């Protein structure tokens, strides 16, 4: 499958590599199929690229890479639509955002991916986790995305 993107140009994606978000993402409910792409210049960074909207790409990272003690509690009802047999099959990502000159991670609403089924869902975690966890002292050449 070939998709056009505003950030990466035209790219080829294997259909089996696509992720399906049945409900889309909050604010992007119309975007249900996504490709998870590696960033060529930063091995810590990935991009969730919508296959239906060329202008939508979300910067994502593994939260434990930046917050080693990150613990997340997710209500089982939030995970039920992913039909995971084993929670160890889940990949956890968080969205990176730029606020003024600071990069932040949304630790409150991680994205959970069922790697085996290629399905995903953004969930709201229980507990007191920040939506804007500031990455202090870490400069990155990120550009504004969707």
Structural account:
This protein has 146 residues and is mostly beta strands. It has a single domain, classed as Roll (BH3618-like). It contains 2 helices and 11 strands; from the N terminus they run ββββββααβββββ. The chain has helices spanning 63-66, 76-79, and strands spanning 2-5, 9-12, 19-20, 33-39, 42-50, 57-61, 90-99, 102-105, 111-114, 119-122, 133-134. The strands form 2 sheets. Strands 3, 4, 5, 6, 7, 8, 9, 10 and 11 form a 9-stranded antiparallel beta sheet that branches. Strands 1-2 form a two-stranded antiparallel ribbon. The longest helix is centred in the middle third of the chain and has 4 residues, at 63-66. The radius of gyration is 15 Å and the shape is globular. The protein starts with a strand and ends in a 12-residue tail after the last strand. The mean pLDDT is 90.
How far apart, in Å, are the first and last alpha carbons?
Answer: 22 Å
CATH class equals Mainly Beta
Round the mean pLDDT to the nearest integer and report it: 90
Low-confidence stretches: none
Number of helices: 2
Radius of gyration: 15 Å
Helix content: under 10%
The CATH topology corresponds to BH3618-like
**What does the overall shape look like?**
globular
